[in-house]
């Protein structure tokens, strides 16, 4: 038995997220700490209903993700060997792996979210998941519609046939028409107000590197799966490098999922909120047992993961 925890990124948020966290002592203590930290960072942030606001959303996802992971591993004593987070979920994974403290992760994510918003202040941006196209087709689509004023790029490789693109809303409109002509099953706009994992966020990467250089880190207690390379990071520096780099580079989720299986992962548990990551794992490597805390009770998840 080798268990991985999966931590979702933006797009998974929804109203009432705090109520999704299991009511265990470690989880509730974590939420109390997160509220205090976020209050100091920004008193106007609503962790329970962040909407499309990228600052509130990123802080909320990290807060509930860490709380849920502690319900599983501290209160539930679930033995976990791997941590994999998607986009901002990588910061949640870094806390679960012991590399960052929750306060340091939240402070860094606050800087990240504000820098991402500033990088997208000049135009209207967004992201969309294209289902039913290959990576090469997505690259062809992006290069075909992208212009210097209205750019588009491949942001996330989630599976062999689910690719997320990011860019201006005008470029996304052109991409949607092209994707349907190429036979895409769907073109789903994500509930985000920024575009990430591409060149528009180079300045955010630089700001993150400076911030993380001042943070005390610790060696990871779990194998952390990187966003930017889909590889296992086993040193604090490798984790920190990924946290900074991935905001301006394509998320290689599909590669990371297949690597976890190669390294012996037999079960993947997705923390609240959402179930998309566990379903992507089930699709890519059916031999791995998957579950989401969103869909089952905490005792049921722990019992099934221990089998």
In short:
The protein has helices at residues 25-41, 54-75, 89-96, 102-119, 135-145, 169-181, 202-213, 236-245, 253-262, 276-284, 298-305; strands at residues 3-7, 82-85, 125-131, 152-157, 162-168, 186-189, 223-225, 232-233, 267-270, 289-292. With 307 residues, the protein is of the alpha/beta class. The chain folds into two domains: 3-119 and 199-305, Malonyl-Coenzyme A Acyl Carrier Protein, domain 2, CATH 3.40.366.10; 125-189, Alpha-Beta Plaits.
Under the CATH scheme, which class of the largest domain?
Alpha Beta
Helix percentage range: 40-55%
Overall number of structural domains: 2
Question: How would the global form be characterised?
Answer: globular
Rg of Cα set = 18 Å
Count every beta strand, where a strand is a DSSP E run of 2 or more residues. Answer: 10
- Main pleated-sheet profile: 6 strands, mixed
CATH architecture of the largest domain, please?
Answer: 3-Layer(aba) Sandwich
Strand order of the largest sheet: 8-7-2-1-9-10
Order of helices and strands: EHHEHHEHEEHEHEEHHEHEH
**Strand content of the residues, in percent?**
5-15%
The CATH superfamily name of the largest domain is Malonyl-Coenzyme A Acyl Carrier Protein, domain 2
Q: Can you give the mean pLDDT?
A: 96
Describe this structure in words.
- With 307 residues, this protein is α/β, with parallel strands linked by helices.
- The chain has 2 domains: 3-119 and 199-305, Malonyl-Coenzyme A Acyl Carrier Protein, domain 2; 125-189, Malonyl-CoA ACP transacylase, ACP-binding (Alpha-Beta Plaits, 2-Layer Sandwich), CATH 3.30.70.250.
- It has helices at 25-41, 54-75, 89-96, 102-119, 135-145, 169-181, 202-213, 236-245, 253-262, 276-284, 298-305; strands at 3-7, 82-85, 125-131, 152-157, 162-168, 186-189, 223-225, 232-233, 267-270, 289-292.
- The strands form 2 sheets. The chain has a 6-stranded mixed beta sheet with strand order 8-7-2-1-9-10, with helices on both faces. It has a 4-stranded antiparallel beta sheet with strand order 4-5-3-6.
- The model has no long low-confidence stretch (mean pLDDT 96).
């Amino acid at each position: 038995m080798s268990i991985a925890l999966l931590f979702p990124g933006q797009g998974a948020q929804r109203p009432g997220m705090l109520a999704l966290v299991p009511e265990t002592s470690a989880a509730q203590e974590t939420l109390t700490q997160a509220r205090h930290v976020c209050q100091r960072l920004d008193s106007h942030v609503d962790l329970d209903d962040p909407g499309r606001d990228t600052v509130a959303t990123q802080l909320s996802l990290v807060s509930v993700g860490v709380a849920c992971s502690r319900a599983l591993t501290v209160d539930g004593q679930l033995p976990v060997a791997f941590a994999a987070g998607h986009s901002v979920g990588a910061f949640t994974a870094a806390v679960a792996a012991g590399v960052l403290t929750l306060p340091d992760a939240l402070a860094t994510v606050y800087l990240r979210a504000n820098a991402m918003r500033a990088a997208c202040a000049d135009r209207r941006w967004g992201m969309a998941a294209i289902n039913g196209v290959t990576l090469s087709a997505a690259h062809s689509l992006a290069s075909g519609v992208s212009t210097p004023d209205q750019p588009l790029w491949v942001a996330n490789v989630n599976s062999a046939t689910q690719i997320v693109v990011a860019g201006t809303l005008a470029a996304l409109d052109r991409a949607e028409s092209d994707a349907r002509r190429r036979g895409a099953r769907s073109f789903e706009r994500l509930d985000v107000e920024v575009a990430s994992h591409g060149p528009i966020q180079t300045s955010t990467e630089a700001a993150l590197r400076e911030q993380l250089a001042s943070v005390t880190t610790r060696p990871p207690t779990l194998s952390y799966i990187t966003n930017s390379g889909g590889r296992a990071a086993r040193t604090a520096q490798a984790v920190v490098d990924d946290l900074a780099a991935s905001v301006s580079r394509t998320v290689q989720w599909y590669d990371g999922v297949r690597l976890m299986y190669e390294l012996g992962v037999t079960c993947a548990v997705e923390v609240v909120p959402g179930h998309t990551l566990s379903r992507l794992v089930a699709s890519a490597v059916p031999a791995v047992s998957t579950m989401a805390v969103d869909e089952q009770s905490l005792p049921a998840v722990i019992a099934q993961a221990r089998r």
